[in-house]
Specification:
By secondary structure, the protein is mainly alpha-helical. Helix content is 61%, strand content 6%.
Length: 101
């Protein structure tokens, strides 16, 4: 996933800047590992999209507060045990929390 994010960021920035941005993001966001148990658990969920199910299973395993995505189908799911929000909504929440600290 980190490689994919680096690819996306590097579409808008040179390689050096993209790597700095990714390093900064990694100080704020969790990178979650995936194993065979997670894959089996994701298969058994009611979520139809396997990748979405895997993201949810891993986020729940790590006790994360949010899944940040622009995927409209993912955002419209109502049976998640974790909050899925758009990046812009997350940034508003993050700014409010930062200001209150």
């Amino acid at each position: 996933m980190k490689t994919f994010k680096l690819y996306i960021v590097s579409k808008f920035h040179d390689d050096t800047t993209a790597r700095i941005i990714i390093k900064n993001l990694l100080t704020t966001f969790a990178v979650v590992g995936v194993d065979g148990h997670d894959c089996r658990k994701a298969i058994d969920t009611t979520i139809k999209d396997f990748e979405d199910a895997l993201v949810v299973v891993c986020a729940e395993k790590e006790g994360l507060e949010y899944i940040i995505t622009n995927d409209k189908q993912f955002l419209s799911q109502t049976d998640l045990n974790i909050t899925a929000i758009r990046p812009s909504d997350f940034l508003m929440i993050y700014e409010v929390k930062s200001l209150s600290e």
